[in-house]
Structures are given as C-alpha cells and as structure tokens.
Amino acid sequence: MFHSSEAFASTRSESVPAPPKNEAPRIELPESTGAAFGKAPLLARHDLHDSALFSDDSLIELLDRHPRDFVYAIATGGDPAREENRLAAHDGVSGRELLAAVRRGRFWLNVTRVNGDATFRALIDQLYGELAKAVPGFRPQKTQGSLLVSSPRAVVYLHADAPPNVLWQVRGRKKIWIYPALDERFLPRADLEDILASARHEYLPYRAEFDAHATCYDLGPGDLVTFPQNAPHRVTNLDSLNVALSTEHFTAQSRARIRVYCANRFLRIRFGLSRLSTRETGPGALAKVVLHRAARAVGLESDPAAAKKWVPTLRVCADAPAGAVDISI
Ligand SMILES: [Fe+2]
Fold it and tell me: Which domains are seen in the chain, by residue range?
C-alpha cells in the first residue's frame, strides 16, 4: 500500500544536511509577481527540500518534543465530494509510531503552532523575510505555521482558511485546486462570516463542476503556492507520503477583512441586517467594527468559537492496516 520509501531515497532531503542557521532559504518568484502576490494563485520555488529539518528523524524528533495538544491526526476518505474527516487520538503514541501510521494509513498530521518551536520560528521568520524582500509592499504583521505530514492519497477536503497562507511543499507530490475567492458560487457570504468568526469549521460542500473554475497545480518538493485570502481550495496527495509547511500571515488588509466580516456577522445575527457592505476600509467599515467591538465588550455576543469542537472517534495505531483503529475497539 505504501510506495514511497524508494521515493524518499531519491529526494535530496534524505542525504543533504541542513543549511547553516545563518543561511536564509532561497525563494524564486516569477518576475511578474510584484503586486499580484496574494491577489491571484501563484506557483513559485523554494529550497526547503534541501534541509534535513524535514527528514524522517527530524520529523520524529519534532513529534516527540512538540506539545501533543497542538498535533491533530485527521483520517480522511478518498472522495473529495464526501467529507469523511475523523479525528484520531494519539496520546502515548511515539513520534516514530505516528510517522509509521501516516505512511500506512490515509490521514494527515497537522502539527499546529510550529512557530512556537525555536527552529521553526527562525525558519518562518527567514521565509517571510525573503518574501518581504521579493514582494514590494508586502509587510506581514504576524506570521505562524503548521507542519503537515500526510499519507499517500490522503485528501484535504474543500475548505477556506481565515488568514492568507503559503503552502511550502517539501516532500512527496500532491495536487491542489484553488477556486475564486469571495465568490458566492463556492462560498456563500454568511458561511465566510462564520468561518472568519471561528463559529464553524472551514469545510465546504464540493461539486465536481466547480473544477471548471479552478486553478490546479501539481506540487512536488521545492514548490510553493499561495492564493488570495479565503480562496476555497482542496488537496489530494498522490502515491507518496507528503510533508509540507503551511504558513499563515496577517497583514493590515487581511485583518481588516476579518474584522469587517465578523462585524457584519454580528449585525446579521443580532439585528437581521444582511448584505451589508464588505468594504474593508472607510468610515462605514470603521463604524461597524467599533460598534461590534463595543457590543462584545458589554457581552452582547457570546464567544462564537465555542461551537467548534471535534471529538476523536479513532486512535492512531501504527500496526493497524489503516494506521488507526476505531476508538470503541
Ligand atoms: Fe488550507
């Protein structure tokens, strides 16, 4: 079932040592990128696959030292149109076993908040330093990241993330489909408001006819992809274990969008006001955001994030054929 051990041997990540700490990773953006960065899907190159930071041994060390509460194991089905995400518990499972289970099964490990790890913090800072040098006017105010380790043929169902992000593919191959942002054919406005308010999960209904409007990339080691904030996207791994770094950045503009959509959501739910302007700047936007902030301060809005809880129904098990067993067994 697992075919990629040979593929690993052929990647440079297995044999080339990590670059010295003071050597910044290299990024090659198309010359035409300029102000289009973040405004349209973009495929570019990096050299993180040359770093031993993503070797099996390094991943195992990270899984053993990172707070386990920040690591999510999500089992998936194979049909992008039928969401079958299941959370798998992994307390007491070693990093080595976790990696073995991902190789064997069909799920992905989302190692969130790797920006809290000194090595990855430094790397993320370097990556955004290089991006800021290459992209005129790009000034992220805050950055964070997750490491994604996923099985051959694992699926990330159609979803929209709140902040803009960059996916740095390091090992394995996958396909990504990116759909137009702020287009209600793919993501109705009220659902985006709920996602930006953390009031619901990020997954969206998918239909095959959406693909006529998608930008699709085949990603391999050394590819990076970024796209407009909130653009719905989905991923299917090919026949190899995948390792990717997903970084998220917050800019003045991206934060303004989140604030306005959250204010619109409050006004929609509390006062029935729908189809409010989505302008992210100007006096109207400011008035709504100030009103929303004041309403929250006096308790007129309960914490929307309280609705978002997953319960594990599987337990990671490296010896099981699917890499996990039903939690009731
Ligand atoms: Fe995403």
Answer: 5-187+202-250+308-326 (2.60.120.650), 256-297 (no CATH)
